[in-house]
Design a protein that fits this description.
By secondary structure, the chain is α/β, with parallel strands linked by helices. α10 (235-247) packs across α11 (256-274) and α11 (256-274) packs antiparallel against α12. It is globular, with a radius of gyration of 20 Å. A 4-stranded parallel beta sheet has the order 3-2-4-5. It has helices at 5-17, 35-40, 42-48, 69-81, 96-108, 122-128, 166-183, 185-195, 204-220, 235-247, 256-274, 279-293, 296-301, 304-314, 344-355, and strands at residues 2-4, 29-34, 56-60, 89-94, 114-119, 133-138, 141-148, 154-156, 325-332, 335-342. The chain is built from 15 helices and 10 strands. The protein is 50% helix and 16% strand.
Length: 359
């Protein structure tokens, strides 16, 4: 269940007390944070539920680089140190990295303990913490290891967004934009008017609408055997870009949303070429994302060798089948197809078409 603001804290308080007060004394309660969410967000959570002071805090460093097996081992060692049982509860308080790795660590420890997500970033609120996916990176491959595992509660408090930089805000906006592109043209139009030049915190209503779109899709296809695959729009190329920039010491890391925005431009061009996306829709998407994320310079700087390296990373994509790249592609703004085979030659061509700004 998803709850907002003070209603969420009331539900959390009731949940903790209704488990035979096992959690009340902190004995079986763990809270996963990073340095930033511990400093800026834990005091807010604690102000609503005082007895969380007695819980076991597990603190990791911030950043995508921490989403790996070694960090999981650190979390599991803390579970062991404080004698966690199958009745224990983990609260994930942080961004997408925290909810991803926390959910995964909980899902496999003693074959699964309960967890609650309290996302503190926009990306976490509208995407990472929703949909019951958990995961970690393996080597340079994004989300290579993971599980489907349900949180007990999801609590959304937009006040946490006030602690974020503008870069983190616009990164999270990319997933909201994707929701409009794949499912709701009206939502896309609203975001287009509202968020193009202002790096503003989206209103609670916009956040709610974005969550609602993802929830509708997930409820129809919880384990991604069909419709849910449309949520991967922009991510086939986007995840490869994110992995490439993360593993390349000569390149500045891309925030997830920036990589996905780039992926959505490339995949919109592919949609235009083979999935009947109208040229006007493609140009509208490209113009919006290039402007909003200032992407043309990054795109133009990709060398031929780098593009080849990105294509090699894409060979590890989970959607691939029978040695074919399978994409989710737009039919029009607001409607998306899935399991669309795309030849390598066309993927590579998309890089050069957008790079030279040709249509």
């Amino acid at each position: 269940m998803i709850y907002f603001n003070e209603d969420g804290y009331h539900k959390l308080y009731e949940y903790l007390l209704n488990k035979n007060q096992l959690y009340y004394y902190g004995k079986n309660l763990f809270i996963l944070v990073d340095d930033l969410s511990y400093k800026h967000c834990f005091p807010i959570l604690r102000s609503y539920i005082k007895f969380l002071d007695t819980s076991h805090i597990i603190k990791i460093s911030p950043g995508e680089k921490e989403k790996n097996l070694n960090t999981c081992i650190f979390i599991w060692k803390n579970f062991e140190k404080f004698k966690a049982t199958r009745s224990s509860l983990l609260i994930n308080l942080g961004g997408g990295v925290i909810t991803d790795i926390g959910g995964f660590s909980a899902s496999v420890f003693k074959r699964g303990i309960r967890f609650i997500n309290i996302p503190t970033t926009l990306l976490g609120m509208v995407d990472a913490s929703i949909g019951n996916k958990t995961g970690i990176n393996f080597g340079y491959i994004k989300n290579e290891i993971g599980t489907f595992y349900h949180p007990e509660l999801l609590i959304i408090d937009p006040n946490f967004l006030k602690t974020l930089s503008k870069h983190e805000i616009i990164s999270g906006q990319a997933e909201m934009i994707k929701h409009g592109l794949i499912f709701d043209r009206t939502f896309w139009i609203t975001l287009n008017k509202t968020l193009l030049y202002d790096n503003i915190i989206p209103t609670q209503n916009l956040i709610y609408q974005s969550i609602l779109i993802k929830n509708k899709i997930v409820e129809k296809d919880p384990t991604e055997i069909g419709l849910r695959k449309i949520l991967n729009f922009g991510h086939t190329i986007g995840h490869a870009l994110e992995s490439f920039f993360m593993d390349n010491t000569n390149r500045k890391h891309l925030l997830h949303g920036v990589a996905i925005a780039m992926g959505m431009i490339y995949e919109s061009w592919i949609s235009y070429k083979i999935n009947d996306l109208p040229i006007d829709d493609y140009q509208e998407i490209k113009y919006y994302l290039l402007k909003k994320y200032s992407l043309q310079k990054i795109i133009n700087q990709l060398s031929n060798n780098e593009i080849n390296d990105i294509l090699l990373i894409m060979e590890h994509d989970k959607k691939n089948k029978n040695n074919k790249f399978l994409f989710s592609l737009l039919k029009q703004i607001g409607h998306c197809s899935y399991d669309c085979p795309v030849p390598v030659s066309l993927i590579k061509e998309s890089f050069f078409q957008v790079k030279t700004n040709n249509d």
